[in-house]
Specification:
Blueprint: E1 21-23, E2 25-26, E3 53-56, E4 67-73, E5 77-85, E6 107-113, E7 120-127, E8 132-138, E9 142-144, E10 152-158, E11 161-169, E12 180-191, E13 196-199, E14 215-221, E15 229-241, E16 249-262, E17 267-273, H1 301-304, E18 334-344, E19 347-356, E20 359-361, E21 364-367, E22 370-380, E23 386-396, E24 405-418, E25 422-433, E26 443-452, E27 456-465, E28 483-494, E29 501-514, E30 520-533, E31 538-546, E32 549-551, E33 559-561, E34 564-572, E35 579-590, E36 593-607, E37 610-628, E38 633-653, E39 656-671, E40 677-693, E41 696-706, E42 719-727, E43 730-731
Parallel strand pairs: 1-14, 2-4
Antiparallel strand pairs: 3-13, 4-5, 5-11, 6-7, 6-12, 7-8, 8-9, 10-11, 12-13, 12-14, 15-16, 15-42, 15-43, 16-17, 17-18, 18-19, 19-22, 20-21, 22-23, 23-24, 24-25, 25-26, 26-27, 27-28, 28-29, 29-30, 30-31, 31-34, 32-33, 34-35, 35-36, 36-37, 37-38, 38-39, 39-40, 40-41, 41-42
Length: 732
């Protein structure tokens, strides 16, 4: 390392550091991004040489090792250089991992509030082994780890510490078109050896990132007002073995293109034509004993990026509805889609439209072509205060003798933040569907109050979804017709003088749900408490009581259940260790019977580039009073769910990896009045991923899936799939 690690302390008489602005200097030539900031051009930067302030383990204390940051920019990129001293570099923890994985080693990064509005920020993090992580933090939408930019970085280490260089294109971010700009900025660094995490501008002791407490980034002038066009053409091929088809092997090929068009520095248009999501991993099986379908997480890039702008009240938009699975198991094809996100005239907005094709089986149409549209506009008025407008539309044209059908929804939500820590949030929504003849009782309402500081959280509120409220054509709606009320209070206490404990927390929660003028549908009280240790271990304990309540969806007319107690316990070790784990378990009452569950997650890293994970789950219900819909009578049901998920990741480099993912599950169910049944399922895939240039990927996957035999429940005939895909990133 050629950059000196003897760092001076910045001294500006009469001004506290929280008021100091970080300066970026414009240059005509770019530095070489090789991880060592020794280029002559870096001498033009104004170094930030102030101590970083810990949020753990010693809250408010200066970091024990010095850090220097320098910022430059030109007409296309913002350049950031970190010089991080360390007196024991021989103790660095080294880990290669896929992009956006949680870091378990030394890392550093930068936050950029490009509008300086205290509400939205991008972050770009880099580990000592040049593993990248990026995303967005929004006051309204929260953390968005699915946002991905195409940026360049490099790192290097020596006997005095380590260094990092980042080159972030302005085209990856949205910002105003002002000639002279001031952005919000903060920096963070971690040291694994001492368990230290620290910020340049101090954040809360619990590590919560508050954008309003960032410093100012000055010196940004004449930034590019237009953004480049990015094209991602792709080609994909697949061959699949179908054991129950006349042709055992089913070949398939496809091409398509994704385009990202920068309409301005504030607006971004994403287009996709004939997209393919074939490399998406299978959704893990789970034991779903509720009346409602499982809520699945989104994994498709087109829907992931900018997803915070489509987070609507009452789950009016659920992206997994678009291109979902048909009744015969086929994936409904997405013909094309468009998405517009960004800001204009003080508003943040997101609009999405996608058109899906049909699915036919034996000459009959199972799924008709459908158009999905969703949009949201948010006007922010300073930190934590906003008003938002949301709307969705689903249209199924008349086809093959079927009638035209539609679904509509709309919502208004607003939040007021006052006296810094107090918030009041309210929202109202409505749905209108062609299959529902009644045009009343189709609204939903919610309001709550929240107080939050570094030590205390308190909230309370109510929500009500009327009986005919139904957003399921494009959203996710479960129980309706009852008023839900809740109150929650929590305490956080750091141990500043302890050599063992880091902090303690406790939380008390109570709820009461009732149909207006009708039965109580839920009530109870719960308390959880936990300890976090300075070595990053934790233990958590929860217990509660559910009172007598009515389940309106169990049986033809519903039924009343007695209440009962529940207990839950969990603990975890430091995920940065070579062997780490998470253990959980609990017992509770369930439908006047019992429910027990236990599980563990184990991660083993035999070398810096290999990781192996095992996720074991078991849950059991006993003597639960349930309605047997097959025999149309009340009975008692016992279930036993067991699942083993194994995964392994072998990183040959930061850009080339193999990943194995597999799950084997078994589900037993037994009724008093019926014979027991057992279902086995197994799936596995091996995925090769190669980023052969920034933003360009090659995938090759081999997978196997076995569904249970419909007669015996044993493993059925396996279906094999070989899949390959090439995506090329072309900036124009």
């Amino acid at each position: 390392m050629k950059t000196a690690c003897t760092l001076s302390i910045l001294a500006i008489t009469g001004i506290s550091f929280s008021q100091i602005s970080v300066q970026a200097v414009k240059v005509n030539e770019s530095p070489v991004i090789d991880g060592i900031p020794d280029d002559e051009i870096w001498n033009l930067a104004i170094p930030v040489q102030e101590d970083f302030i810990q949020h753990r383990p010693d809250c408010g204390e200066p970091m024990t090792e010095a850090t220097e940051v320098r910022l430059l920019y030109d007409d296309k990129y913002l350049y950031c250089a970190f010089t991080m001293c360390d007196s024991h570099p021989e103790e660095f923890t080294r880990r290669l991992a896929p992009r956006d994985n949680d870091f378990s080693t030394e890392w550093a990064g930068i936050w950029l509030d490009t509008y300086n509005d205290d509400n939205n920020a991008y972050f770009f993090f880099i580990s000592i082994d040049n593993v990248q992580q990026d995303g967005r933090l929004c006051e309204v939408g929260g953390w968005d780890l699915n946002w991905d930019g195409v940026w360049t970085s490099s790192t290097a280490s020596s006997d005095s510490g380590w260094t990092a260089e980042l080159s972030i294109p302005f085209s990856a971010m949205c910002y105003s078109e002002d000639e002279e700009q001031v952005w919000g900025v903060n920096f963070k660094r971690t040291i694994t050896r001492t368990n230290e995490s620290a910020f340049l501008f101090r954040m809360a002791d619990n590590g919560q990132v508050k954008i309003e407490d960032f410093g100012n980034l000055c010196g940004l002038n004449s930034l590019p007002s237009s953004r480049q066009i990015e094209l991602r053409p792709y080609g994909a091929g697949r061959i699949q073995y179908l054991h129950d088809a006349e042709e055992e092997w089913d070949p398939w090929a496809n091409t398509g293109i994704d385009a990202r068009i920068g309409l301005s520095s504030e607006l971004l248009l994403d287009l996709t034509v004939n997209p393919d999501f074939g490399q998406v991993e299978a959704d893990p099986d789970e034991a779903n004993l509720s009346h409602w379908e499982s809520y699945l997480s989104e994994k498709r890039p087109f829907f992931l990026e900018g997803s915070d702008m489509f987070s609507m009240p009452f789950s009016l938009f659920y992206s997994r509805r678009v291109g979902s699975v048909a009744p015969n198991g086929e994936i409904i094809p997405i013909i094309g889609g468009a998405k517009l996100t960004g800001s204009f005239n003080g508003f943040r907005a997101g609009f999405l439209n996608a058109y899906t094709g049909s699915i036919k089986d034996n000459g009959s149409t199972l799924v008709h072509p459908t158009n999905y549209a969703a949009g949201r506009i948010v006007r922010e008025f300073g930190r934590g205060t906003y008003i938002g407008f949301s709307g969705t539309s689903t249209d199924v044209p008349a086809h093959d003798g079927s009638l035209y059908s539609y679904g509509r929804s709309g919502a208004v939500d607003a939040q007021i933040t006052f006296l810094e820590n107090h918030k009041i949030n309210s929202s109202v929504a409505g749905t209108w569907n062609s299959y529902e003849n009644r045009w009343d009782d189709n609204y939903a309402y919610r309001t709550f109050y929240k107080y939050s500081d570094e030590r205390l959280d308190f909230s309370g509120g109510m929500s009500y979804r009327e009986e005919n409220f139904d957003a399921n054509m494009i959203g996710y709606t479960s129980s309706t017709g009852d008023v839900s009320t809740w109150i929650n209070s929590g305490l956080y206490h750091p141990y500043t003088e302890s050599d063992v404990l880091q902090h303690w927390w406790g939380n008390l929660h109570a709820w009461y749900d009732r149909v207006p003028g009708g039965p109580v549908t839920g009530r109870g009280i719960g308390f959880n408490t936990g300890l976090s240790f300075r070595n990053r271990y934790h233990v958590d304990f929860e217990f509660g009581y559910n009172g007598t309540h009515t389940d309106r969806y169990e049986g033809p007319e519903g039924t009343e259940y007695d209440g009962g107690l529940n207990f839950n316990l969990s603990c975890s070790s430091d995920s940065r260790e070579q062997l780490s784990g998470y253990l959980w378990g609990g017992i509770s009452s369930y439908c006047e019977g019992s429910r027990n569950y236990a599980g563990t997650w184990i991660n083993y890293k035999p070398s810096p580039n290999i990781s192996i994970e095992a996720d074991i789950n078991w849950s059991q219900t006993g003597d639960a009073r349930k309605y047997d819909w097959n025999l149309e009578e009340w009975s008692h049901r016992n279930t036993d769910w067991r699942s083993l998920q194994l995964s392994g990741n072998w990183m040959l480099s930061n850009y080339f990896s193999f990943r194995l993912t597999s799950q084997m599950s078994r589900f037993d169910t037994e009724w008093e009045t019926e014979e027991s049944s057992r279902d086995y399922r197994h799936w596995m895939n091996v995925l090769l991923s190669w980023q052969f240039r920034p933003g360009s990927m090659f995938f090759f996957m081999v997978g196997e899936n076995t569904d249970p035999d419909q007669q015996t429940g044993d493993f059925g005939e396996p279906e094999f799939t070989i899949f390959t895909k090439l995506t090329w990133f072309l900036p124009v």
